[in-house]
Amino acid sequence: MRLLSVSRVSQSRTRSSFLTIRAQTSRTFSQLHSNPERSSFGIAFDIDGVILRGRTPIGGSPQALKRLYSECGTMKIPFLFLTNGGGVPESKRAIELSELLDVNILPLQHLSFMSLMQVVQGHYPFKTLVAGYENKLIVAIGKGEPAEVMSDYGFKKVLSMDEYASYFDNIDPLAQYKIWEAKTTFREDRSLLPRYDVLSERVQAAFIVSDPVDWSRDIQVLCDILTSGGLPGQANRHQPPLYFAADDLEYQAAFPSMRLGMGAFRIALEAIFSEIHPLPLEYTSYGKPNSFVFKNAEAILKQLQQLSCDEHDVLHNGDAVNHSFRTLYMIGDNPSVDIKGAQQARSPWLSILTRTGVFRGEINDPEFPADLVVDDVEEAVDYIFRRESTLGNQ
């Protein structure tokens, strides 16, 4: 189905502590069981350029999200955030979003019969690789807390790039010219040192968890790891595996024009690697627009949908009856990532493109045209409610 671009219909448009959010989550969980109706649709929101620009809500996002809850604060429409961003555990990101948007976003909650989450970041698929690298030395690269992210997923021998590079004297020839100070003091605090010999143990894999901060150092050290078989300073050997959480060339941040993303870093690394190594760079990229990301999102939305089932069905049957969605809506701002991904995932996905981020066109994207183009997320949610009301009356 292909829908036309629509014009804007209307312009109407506290910080919470962790304990408050946990309490609200518990109330929401118990209250949702009492809702006899089950939504026939779900929504996946991109974050940067759709919900937030930097840390500022945009496009009427708080008002739009509040429409997905009942008056008593319980979730009535299953929804999640599907982003290629990351750098912190999903539970921390959920708390941050709850504070910025003034709605209750569920972090990872291990309850009696299911796990709940409403934030799926680009690095979430790394969890599927734990079995292969659980007790092997890996390096996590990127902004935020990349090593903590990987540790939360179950990796037991993980070092951030900051930590790893600090063990090799002079590995970064430009370090003396960098005026910023590292937040970590791992070399001074002996309790934070790993219980293995970094200088003799080979890195088994490198993970780009989030956007790298120090490109010159990270490219240098990654080339050292990848060309030496996992131990900088050694002779050329087979390249260890390299994984990227996403491959976005650009994204919408707080600055008015697009910012270079993880895909740009990958292009730079790949170009340099090919000049110093006889073989091309081997890597695996995750994140949108990969179809399995949307399949995983659908599975999580079904879990959230089940929360509106009758409590008796869950407690006595062990699980809720699986009801398929009539429609799943992907609301994004990047045609080559959000819209392409929804198109590749096919039914029941329907794509909605906003003009608040990467896309700024008047009509539609020529290469990856969305099912609907709107000005912002508030207009998108308004359309969804009107469409679903019409379908429900047929």
List keywords for this structure.
2 domains, six-stranded parallel sheet, Rossmann fold, 17 strands, five-stranded parallel sheet, HAD_sf, 394 residues, single chain, alpha/beta, 33% helix, elongated
Major sheet characteristics: 6 strands, parallel
Kindly identify the CATH topology of the largest domain.
Rossmann fold
Give the overall pLDDT as a whole number.
85
What is the spatial order of strands in the main beta sheet? 7-4-1-15-16-17
By CATH reckoning, the class of the largest domain would read Alpha Beta
The number of domains is: 2
- According to DSSP, the number of beta strands is 17
**Could you give me the name of the CATH homologous superfamily of the largest domain?**
HAD superfamily/HAD-like
Distance separating the two termini: 18 Å
Estimated radius of gyration: 22 Å
Report the portion of residues in β strands.
5-15%
Description:
The chain is of the alpha/beta class and 394 residues long. The protein has two domains: 41-122 and 288-311 and 322-393, 3-Layer(aba) Sandwich (Rossmann fold), CATH 3.40.50.1000; 124-175 and 194-285, HAD superfamily/HAD-like (Rossmann fold), CATH 3.40.50. 33% of the residues lie in helices and 14% in strands. It contains twelve helices and 17 strands. It has a six-stranded parallel sheet, sandwiched between helices. The chain has a five-stranded parallel sheet with strand order 9-8-10-11-14, with helices on both faces. Strands 2-3 form a two-stranded antiparallel sheet. The longest helix is centred in the last third of the chain and has 16 residues, at 291-306. The protein starts with 17 loop residues before the first helix and ends with a helix. It holds the Pfam family Hydrolase_6. One of its GO terms (biological process) is glycerophospholipid biosynthetic process. InterPro entries: CDP-alcohol_PTase-I (IPR050324), HAD-like_sf (IPR036412), HAD-SF_hydro_IIA (IPR006357), HAD-SF_hydro_IIA_CECR5 (IPR006353), HAD_sf (IPR023214).
